[in-house]
Amino acid sequence: MQFQQLAYFVAVADARHFTRAAEAVHVSQPSLSQQIRALEKELGAALFSRARGNIALTDAGEALLPLARRILADADTARHEVLELAQLRRGRVRLGATPSLATGLLPDVLRAFHDRHPGIRLIVEEGGSHDLVRHLARGALDLALVVLPLPTPSPALTTVELFQEDLVVVSSAADEAPASPLRIADLEGRPMVMFRHGYDLRDLTLAACRAAGFEPYFTVEGGEMDAVLGFVRAGLGIGVVPQMVAARAGHDLRVTPLARPGLRRTVALAHRSDVAPPRAARVLQDVLLTAATRPLVQTRP
């Protein structure tokens, strides 16, 4: 008994017509009929009655049908399981992340994933949430770490909140220590180093300053995360960065918390709603969700 014979049998049982069944499984009608006859011979019983052109299941056919469906379903499941296991031995995951998350969160997470699945190639693309959402929508990424709320919410994306994180003020350790904690209003008039347009952190900081009634003063603007931290180290101004980034920034930067309510950001994992991520991407998603429950970052209750 062959899987192909069972598939042909189920097709005829569903169509109750040999020609239409042959079309459904993309074989010629004589080939299908030959395989059905071979199956009947092997089982020692007729599976169909063919009275005046009407096709009906015999008692033997009725008994075989649910078994055949289950065998074919189990075989299909087995194929998918083996394929997914193979995908965890080789393949790729395309992960998007904002630069601060690529710097602060991903090193430990990707190391844990790589230790478990060294054959998976990890492709990381940095960008602002707006760009990452666009890349997800066109299928260029499997997963993306983004900051909520999204600049352009999309029903085509599914987002899962991972954690909330405080933003802090960093300054050069060589400069005079600012008051601690700092209020948003205390940032007025202070030289500040600012990220380029499109950075989620830029938008958060600008919105907070404007809500406090002032426009921030930029000595340098337009940099990426590493450049901003370098400018701050050089004494060009203060910066507002995520706490996880500040924790890795080194002893040449001073970290000052913001007074309540301060500034917080919500980090989420996003993927397309209409397409399930590949198995390897789903495993990485589980690693990220697990990491979000651990004290990778210090957040306020």
Automatic annotation (TrEMBL):
Record key words, sorted: DNA-binding, Transcription, Transcription regulation
Domain HTH lysR-type per the UniProt entry, residue ranges: 1-58
Lineage: superkingdom: Bacteria
Keyword Oxidoreductase: no
Gene3D superfamilies to which the protein is assigned, alphabetical: 3.40.190.290, Winged helix-like DNA-binding domain superfamily/Winged helix DNA-binding domain
GO MF annotations, alphabetized: DNA binding; DNA-binding transcription factor activity
Pfam families: HTH_1, LysR_substrate
InterPro entries: LysR_HTH_N, LysR_subst-bd, WH-like_DNA-bd_sf, WH_DNA-bd_sf
GO CC annotation: protein-DNA complex
Family according to the record: Belongs to the LysR transcriptional regulatory family.
Protein name from the UniProt record: LysR-family transcriptional regulator
Organism: Actinacidiphila cocklensis
